[in-house]
Amino acid sequence: MVSLKYPQIAIGWFLTLLSYLPHVLCLNSLHTLQQAFTTMTASGSKVDVSKKWDVLGPFPIHAREQQYISPAFPLNLSEPIDYNKLWPSSYADGGNVGWKKVEVGEDGELRVSFPDVRWKYLRNFQGWAALQHHAVLRSTFKIHRPAADERKVRLLVQLRQGSYFTILPADSFSNITPRWYAGNIYDISGSLPQIVELPLSRTGEYQLFISGDYEIRLFGDPVTQEGSDVPVQKIILDLQIEDIDEVGYALEPAQNVICDFVDGYAFGDSIGIGLRNTGESWISVDAAKTVGLPAGLEVQILKTIRIAPGQTRVIPLKLRQLTRTEATVLDICLTVTGDQDSTYSKNLTVSLPIHHTTGWTTGSESRNAVKASFLFANSSPTIFVVIPPRLRGKGQNAPPILSLHGAGVDITYEPHFDFWVEAQPQNDYSWIILPAGRTSWGLDWHGPSTKEALDAVEALSEILQSNDAWKHQAFRRDTKVILIGHSNGGQGVWHISTHYPDRIIAAAPTAGYIKSQAYIPLTESRSAHFIDPSLRAILESSLTPDDNDLHLTNAAHLPIQAIHGGADENVPSFHSRELISVLKSLNPDGNLSHYQEDPGEKHWYNTVLNNTTVQDFIDAHIHSTAPQGHPSSFSLTVSNPTEAGPLYGWKIHSLTIPGRLGTLRITTDGDGLARVSTTNVLRFSIEDSKSLSSLTALTIASTSFPTGKFIDFPVHFVREKGVWTTTTESTLRSIPPTRIQTILSTLGTINIFFDGEPALSLAKRLAHDLHLYHRLDAEIIGPAATEDEERGGNFVVIGTLQSPRIRRLLETGGTSFNLRKGSLSLDEKEAAGDSHVFLHPGSTATSYKLVIIYSDVASLERAGRLFPIRTGVAVPDWLSLSPGLDRLGAAGLRGAGVWDTNWRYQESSSWLDNY
Ligand SMILES: *[C@@H]1O[C@H](CO)[C@@H](O)[C@H](O)[C@H]1NC(C)=O
Ligand SMILES: *[C@@H]1O[C@H](CO)[C@@H](O)[C@H](O)[C@H]1NC(C)=O
Ligand SMILES: *[C@@H]1O[C@H](CO)[C@@H](O)[C@H](O)[C@H]1NC(C)=O
Ligand SMILES: *[C@@H]1O[C@H](CO)[C@@H](O)[C@H](O)[C@H]1NC(C)=O
Ligand SMILES: *[C@@H]1O[C@H](CO)[C@@H](O)[C@H](O)[C@H]1NC(C)=O
């Protein structure tokens, strides 16, 4: 059955793809949802889902607040539900709401709306924030099993555009703590279902609860979307059932990764094969080789890949090409072994279609876009798209153009790929690089999405260098780039320009927004009515790295051309005007930042990037030799030094009070003397002699340093007892990253260690979410495993105070959390709270561990939801939780804070409720 809804429409922080791609509506069968209300396994088990839903809502909530508050709010699902009860809600006339009934539509879509609420009245004074709302949805389903079948079954659940779901037996409420599974709220294409282990139910009957949360950023403004004041949640649920065998696996072809072949040669060195463990025990893939034709290609597995029951991983393979090929398929044989049963070994052959293309069509200047691949974070085969320079043979001497897409654009998916390729400006001399951003939303071009964009530039340089046919078109690996982007990608341009300014020559952000908190204000926050504002400030400091406006000093001397449609209904042009206005305040005499507003144009129009303005701007900077040295005066602002690069070669490494902004101000007087003043900076460096330009001496605070004495670069400066001195790089240690979200910026597979069944369940859900939202590889590791430090990448460690691994971690004293007489202490005092989430140093200076300590299942569920899988979840370095979170959100915290530079408790950036 074909659903009438093109799954990617309406996504948009901005990319309303309906307006992008009206002609692809008929293509939606490509991504058709199996909207089957009865599904059956081979053995005859089946699941019947009711079309009837009970709905309670709407309740005010701010974006991402459902990660703090219980997804069942205002209910406690461990108690019976009273369907006649009214609950306070300030959205409703009279101030109360109750339950109502909704039925799934013919098209399989569950449309939840509250037309009795006077939304227009609310938005008159609260704006878009007043349309954000939360609702609880409840339905039932029944599983029928053939009497003779003893096997277990598992449920495969796809929830699109809902934030969380849980499944409970229908017959009993007592002693059941719901486990919440994240939905695919962005409706990311090619997503895998959540694998649900069913709780016991005597009758085979279950109830299903969904947290339905309307977010403007995701679903759009109903007035422009549907010409109505009433926001409508459009939720799609798909349940499948699967018999579980002792050992088993299934290919997941939608997760495969393979690059194009250009003139017979692979345009990349990485291949990925999606494999799901469908059995009850763990499996490993430890060998891979090509079989049959085509000759001339070899693959090698990077390491043994262990897959937990129900988990999917993308097997990373290194591709080596010996000779040119014309083959149209690549057959790869994987060896799968069972972990429990050492005699279990199967060879499995996968056929990957090879797409051949050419860089340029013969005899003309017309070029093709090419899908390239590389290995991201030493673990995840990743596609990016490149468009060759229009002139054949060029590309070596001009900087590449890095172009960031809007939210919801999946560059690996044909209609989106074509759309985004055609949207690019014309260019004769440069390669244009279109990174994936991890996924169509990724982390809004922050964290791993930023890293992927910059890594794709290096990867293209290497692909070109590695083949004689392309070598003459290769640019330098460490080249700077011209950065452009639209919508979410426009915001990404502002983010990367302000956080990695030395990588950028010039930037053209179009239809970008300042930051998420400025796009939909957090006005409707529930926790704000209960929380100490000083705790709120500490929590929100974890969003400071996302505050692009606060980092604009770093782009004050960068050529910038902002463009915005004057009638943008999705990202108001106010955002670009405001950013440019801030730049003009920071550098009033410069004439570097320009703003073009295209009157009457909406969010997307075909010429927003493909326009003479962008073209002329790019051409002006492509051949300009970047000015040597630095401006006579400039400032570097940094909030999280682990996610910020240098400015003119000056780099901040650590802050005196992490969590607050740090600023380095350099002013030169024309005689080679520079005065350096700092706010909240503990340590900075100067990368090389070029960064000093023609300076002969520096005065930092009141200490003078003749630059002639600087022999070895980088030169590091550190502030000790109020006095600045130089120091060596070797004293650099691991710096705490100020926010838990940095765990996503991994240099390898994310290793998730669990101890206990509830922890394993959370580990599987986190691994699923890391793959869905960021295509990050995760390995789930049991309590018996050792050799932690060899693994590389970041760690997540989940356990109780009784878990040996947790005890060992606490005993090493990596942070201020310690074991004292068998209980947990923080800074020598008993740690309040029933679960704790905190960052801990990793085994290298650039890796981290996230520790989750729980006491019971409910406390683990609360802690697990704070894993910052999406932008805007305010979680600093450490948090202590209580059951109060379920009702009060962040106001239920018992403590939170940012570590000092030594990973210790720091009074000035902490809050505790038991002092
Ligand atoms: C799988 O292939 C390898 C050679 O690549 C062979 O040695 C092994 O016997 C095969 N295993 C099975 C179960 O066929
Ligand atoms: C981009 O602009 C060029 C020159 O103005 C034009 O020839 C081309 O058709 C445009 N591309 C698209 C997709 O509109
Ligand atoms: C500023 O730059 C714009 C565009 O490059 C140019 O048209 C304008 O004349 C410049 N203004 C000044 C005062 O230099
Ligand atoms: C650039 O965009 C503006 C505004 O949409 C449009 O009027 C103009 O024709 C475009 N120019 C080119 C060459 O595409
Ligand atoms: C939910 O209800 C159960 C059972 O009555 C109770 O033990 C638990 O504390 C409640 N949870 C919260 C957060 O109030």
From TrEMBL:
BP-aspect Gene Ontology terms: proteolysis
Peptidase S9 prolyl oligopeptidase catalytic domain span: 458-613
GO molecular function: serine-type peptidase activity
Lineage top rank: taxon: Eukaryota
Keywords from the named record: Signal
Keyword Signal: yes
Entries under InterPro entries matching the protein: AB_hydrolase_fold, Peptidase_S9_cat, Plant_Biomass_Hydrol_Est
Protein name: Peptidase S9 prolyl oligopeptidase catalytic domain-containing protein
Lineage, uppermost ranks: Eukaryota, Fungi, Dikarya, Basidiomycota, Agaricomycotina
